[in-house]
């Protein structure tokens, strides 16, 4: 689907029905990312016969962690110690997580502020049910220049902390993400064209 990319393309499936996900699965898409816990659990149950790799890519409320944490391959949006506490409490196995970093520094966006990142990563080391494997960020809407700055910073952070995964890039800006070594793209709209 995306020719010059050898990482993981996650179908951001919040606007897709379970039936549409099933169609995409049979076309070779096996990674799906959901934004809301309730929707995710419903779709997962309807598609339990398929070997889907589920990702959680939305803002995660602490009180929802227990319902979903043992059903995903990768959490893209760890950004608060309160969520880490709940993962530690409810995870049966070690959970692979990405730390969401707010690199466009917009107030309405979730994520750890860059100046607090080092302290956050030290704190997270106390939790033996959490394995930090990389970072996630979002670009700035309708601003390719600021988006590219954010993606470049995420790449630099990954290299600095020696963490392999970089989740960044959506339908409008995935080419910039690939340029800055994204390993996971979160694509929604482009998949609609395959249905």
Describe the 3D structure.
The chain is α/β, with parallel strands linked by helices and 195 residues long. It has one domain (8-192): TIM Barrel (Alpha-Beta Barrel). Helices cover 35% and strands 19% of the residues. The protein has an eight-stranded parallel β-sheet with strand order 7-6-5-4-3-2-1-8. β1, α1 and β2 (31-34) form a beta-alpha-beta unit. The longest helix has 18 residues, at 144-161. The mean pLDDT is 96.
Short description:
It contains 8 helices and 8 strands, in the order βαβαβαβαβαβαβαβα. By secondary structure, it is of the alpha/beta class.
Please tag this protein with its features.
single chain; 195 residues; alpha/beta; 19% strand
Classify the helix fraction into a percent range. Answer: 25-40%
CATH architecture: Alpha-Beta Barrel
Oligomer: single chain
Tell the overall outline.
globular
CATH class division = Alpha Beta
Which structural class should the secondary elements be placed in?
Answer: alpha/beta
